[in-house]
Predict the 3D structure of the following.
Amino acid sequence: MYSDPITDVSEAAASQMDLIRESLPAYLAHSALAGCYLGFGVAIAFQLAGDVMGTSLAPLQSLLMGGSFGIALSLVIMAGCELYTGNAMIAAVGQLTGKTGTGSMLKIWVWSWVGNLIGSVVFAALLAFSGSMPTEPFAAIAAAKMTMPAHELFLRGMLCNWLIVLAVWCNFKLDNSVAKLVMIFWCLLVFIGAGFEHSIANMVILSTAIMMPGVGTAVQGISLSGFAYNISIVTAGNTASGVLALAVIYYWVSRRYGVEYSWGDDAMDMAPADDD
């Protein structure tokens, strides 16, 4: 039933591994772009958050941030780059199908994460010193993220990346660009609106807060150790759901599904599905 997207995802994992072998700097640059693209989403979301804080529209803050943050994953998927949270699923599917090995899966995870970190920190520095960002939402949200209980961070990380990899999976299943964008915006609206945690978005948010004049050195709870605490736990949660909530389940279903349904003009035909 899912043989085509499983094949496409596996080939994407193999292509990433080929680039890592051929030119690691090029792969890191490609991954760094993802950190930057998420930075654009952070910029518009936090600008809107600052605009409505303390106003009658404050209850709509999460909705506004979620509705605007879709630009981030839209750029990642449409322009093309390597986002760790999506790669948690992509590399796992490559390993499950045998297209790439366990070592390759781990390399894709490590190097895409490192590249995302580089891009996130560079973009955060530009954002922090641009003078265009409101300080209040960065101070409040960063402090909350750095002091949240570990189990909450892990579970919010799992819930977040379940939505992210669903958006990435739909990108492989859908052919229409408008349909892909609709799914991206729906998934990210839920992720932001529900308060889930994304490791790479947090790299930008927390780095910006640390470097922003008047925030990083003045607000209690914001520190490099808080950054490490949040990112390590959220990364673990993101990885767990990328592997378990999508890669393993869809791979298993694709191997066990007995029939495949195809819709004709007048009726539904049922035929045996290939056992991939």
Remarks:
- The chain has ten helices and two strands.
- The two ends are 9 Å apart (CA to CA).
- Confidence is low (pLDDT under 50) at residues 259-276.
- The CA atoms of residues 25 and 246 lie 29 Å apart.
